[in-house]
User: Fold these one by one.
Assistant:
Number 1:
Amino acid sequence: MSAPLNLTVELGTRSYPIWIGAGLLDDAERWRAALRGRHVLVVSNDVVAPLYLNRVVAGLEGLSFSTLVLPDGEAHKTLDSAARVFAALAELNASRDATIVALGGGVIGDLAGFAAACWMRGIAFVQMPTTLLAMVDSSVGGKTAVDLPQGKNLVGAFHQPRAVVVDTGTLATLPERELRAGLAEVVKYAALGDAAFFAWLEQHADALLARDTQVLAEAIATCCRQKGGIVSRDETEQGERALLNFGHTFGHALETATGYGVLLHGEAIAIGMLQAARLSTQLLRASAADAGRLRALVARCGLPTSIPRGVEPQRLLDLMRLDKKNLSGRLRLILWRGIGQAEIVPDVDEAMIVRVLREGLRAEG
Ligand SMILES: NC(=O)c1ccc[n+]([C@@H]2O[C@H](COP(=O)([O-])OP(=O)(O)OC[C@H]3O[C@@H](n4cnc5c(N)ncnc54)[C@H](O)[C@@H]3O)[C@@H](O)[C@H]2O)c1
């Protein structure tokens, strides 16, 4: 195993490392330092556990640990699943110095992190993300949540992990469509704040799709460095952190309009970013050439570029009005002035959005 990349999310006494490299699940000597007391609960799901759980368990020798394997899928990111985590912690006699290890994608990370935030008012947790989306986004930054029937991520807490262990080797088993959806978030980081990274992605898209672990590690590190920096400056999203939602207001609306499960989150974000870029050419005089480069990169990553047929622009706008980022009923969007230059735009004209979405239905198709 070559030496992993090592980053730090700077948050004073709550700062934590992100290790990135192939084979890290087996490097218990490294990650055991992030566990707190003697009690450890590993939470995973029934897709990831058969693949990787034994490697994590092998590193827990000598500790008092147990494992909880939940059913796979967003449908299980619920209070009921959190209750199962609490029951497992009680069974383990977990005290305030216990640690939860989250082994899986964003669903497991969000759920296990939420349970860690609640148990005895907050215990340690370690993220071991196994999807590209979780590696570049959800495992870093401490947003944890479960869904309610009324909506996604409605109950949650900010609770930072003690470490993030990114074993890039686990991406070998990730379904192709999930890998591509994760790439949408990678493109997002470049689009919103790093023009040089955008050019690098244009050069390395094929290597990323071929799952070259070295190239993947470099891309993941660049994303985590950017997200870690933003989180350390704006942990609870009072300002700058909102930029990470580039493409997300459109994307969330698309996910809801098409029905959850039709588009993967990353696919919806890909389409959403293209709408944001096109709106920006009209509203902020951003260059149309940059919007074209974004579209080309999204397509190259095998992601959808058009709003699915049958989705009504007016319906999308109605859904966008429900977005958490809006303030006092005014639509607040993350747009860009060009590649690498996203900004928060308050009070966007709704008629213009509908016009852009109408064109979008034709233009990208
Ligand atoms: N907390 C945050 O900041 C944040 C940010 C973005 C998204 N999220 C949340 O993340 C969730 C989506 O995460 P996701 O895209 O990772 O989905 P996911 O956790 O459902 O994983 C996708 C699929 O891949 C499977 N899988 C995971 N790792 C695998 C591997 N190595 N090999 C084979 N299969 C594997 C999973 O079992 C699942 O079927 C959503 O709930 C979203 O709300 C949170």
Note: Residues 66 and 91 are 9 Å apart (CA to CA).
Number 2:
Amino acid sequence: MAGANPAVVYARTAAPAAGECAWCGRRFGGDDEHRAGRIRCARCGVATTSPWPSDEQLAKAYAVWYRPSAGRFSGVGDAVLKRTRSALASRLHRVLPEGPVLDVGAGDGTLVEAFRRHGREAVGVDPYASGASPHVRAVEFEEMTGGWSAVIFWHSLEHLRRPVRALRHAADLVVPGGVLVVAVPNAASLQARLFGDRWLALDLPRHLVHIAPAALLSQIEALGFRVERVSYLRGGQVLFGWLHGLVGRLPGHPDLYDAIRRGEAQQAAQSPALRLYALAAALVALPLAAAGTAIEVATRSGGTIYVEARREPDPETA
Ligand SMILES: [Zn+2]
């Protein structure tokens, strides 16, 4: 909704406060940082969405506007989305050992289809699968078994109730020499700190954890992976996060994300004038957003963090 502070609006919903850190399991107490709609753990630095939403609340939050059958965005946005997934699949296809790929939180299967165009077996799981792709199964990730050359969490880990347990399960599924890929919003980024409650990637309550890179990297290494690549740009959405944040600071707090979505995918109906205002503001803010992105990338504090980590080959076969 344009105008209202989304974190404050969410904080008022009737659900019990989060009692423990969804990342490390620490019971919350006086040392933890309480902010609108989330609590930041004093031990691991990850914030947990609070109140902790019920399944019903989440199902409602994922209702049709999030992934409508016609695509989320107007033409250009969907085309960009498709091209970036395609580039990711091409890159990973080159660095992965042979074998199938598992995409966790596959949505409409854009990334899965991109792998399959390379002739690589690929399967997606998504409890909210639209049914648009025959290769995306509407099951929970932890029901999956087998050996995979890669398990990919492309902006999905932050949607899981037990993200560390999911990473542990991924470590069981990735074959020796295979790769774990994780892209999540960077809750310690410059844009997260600057835009606070209005940061685009806070996305309450769909994002249940708000992850800092240090916690993510140490967890991945603890599971026996060697981190091979960390990027603060590849995860996408960095520039858009800046644009959205800058536009949202203007009078009336226009919502750029809503402005670029198709009518049926919008969270709140926008008048054509408000939509035009948001889009024009984005155009004006573009150079500043580009500068912010450049600073984030240079200081390794970008709005997303992308990690590729390889499972060490078994010692007896190495
Ligand atoms: Zn914690």
Note: The two ends are 55 Å apart (CA to CA).
